Amino acid sequence: MRNEGRQRGRPRARGLGPRLVLAGLAAWLILIPFSLLLVVAKLPLNDLDAGVAAGLHAYVLDNPGVTRALIVWTDAFGPWPWRIAVIACAGWLLYKGAARAAAWAVTTVTVGGLLGLAIKVIVARARPHLPDPVALAPGDSFPSGHTVNATLGAGVIVLLLLPVLPRWGRRVAWVVAAFLALSVGCTRIALGVHWVSDVVAGLVLGVAVIAATAAAFETWRRDQGRRPASPVTEGVEPESVRALRE
């Protein structure tokens, strides 16, 4: 019976990867209405975008010290630092024997990042053109890649750490993650390299990809016969707590 159960479990375990990728791709559907709103019906988004960009640009021109601080912050929490942090967490999880959580983390960040790049190419929105720019960035504008990756990185790391955090620590972790994602998005607008709607789209895409892949991981867990769990409060794999503490 035990061998039979293992044999039934193997194909389900192998199905985790495709589930996560499909879930990440499905998250793209959430961006379709927002993209159509931007491309087909540009008002009132452009009024909001233009007004905020002009106001913040005037402020940073008058405050060079603030500009330097914004550049340091946006670089410190840019896409590559988040990717490296998630890969380091995944490596630590592999070392501790939590290979499934590691696979979820890497898949979520990879799929989310690729979706963001694909949407940039499809929408092909130009970045703000401001007089006396304080910063420059390559590529298209929508959605903000920094915001997508900050949302993905912060959310993934929190969901990996939740099993080993106390209840009060979980709330603090979510607050810190939200602050980091929002603050990075704000720096992109203030530096004049993104519109407000770019940052909103980046936040929406990041949250959607995490929610989709976490839901796919939870359905896979339940198919394995594990107890139902709430990823928001217990993390994506609560049973990994033993491995992480050893």
UniProtKB/TrEMBL annotation:
Protein name: Undecaprenyl-diphosphatase
Record field: transmembrane: 20-41, 80-95, 102-126, 146-165, 172-193, 199-217
Top-level enzyme category: hydrolase
Natural source organism: Nonomuraea rubra
Enzyme Commission identifier(s): 3.6.1.27
Keywords (A to Z) from UniProt: Hydrolase, Membrane, Transmembrane, Transmembrane helix
Top-level taxonomic group: Bacteria
Domain Phosphatidic acid phosphatase type 2/haloperoxidase as annotated: residue spans: 98-214
InterPro entries, alphabetized: PAP2/HPO (IPR000326), PAP2/HPO_sf (IPR036938)
Lineage: Bacteria, Bacillati, Actinomycetota, Actinomycetes, Streptosporangiales
One term of GO molecular function: undecaprenyl-diphosphatase activity
Coiled coil: none
Region spans: Disordered: 226-246
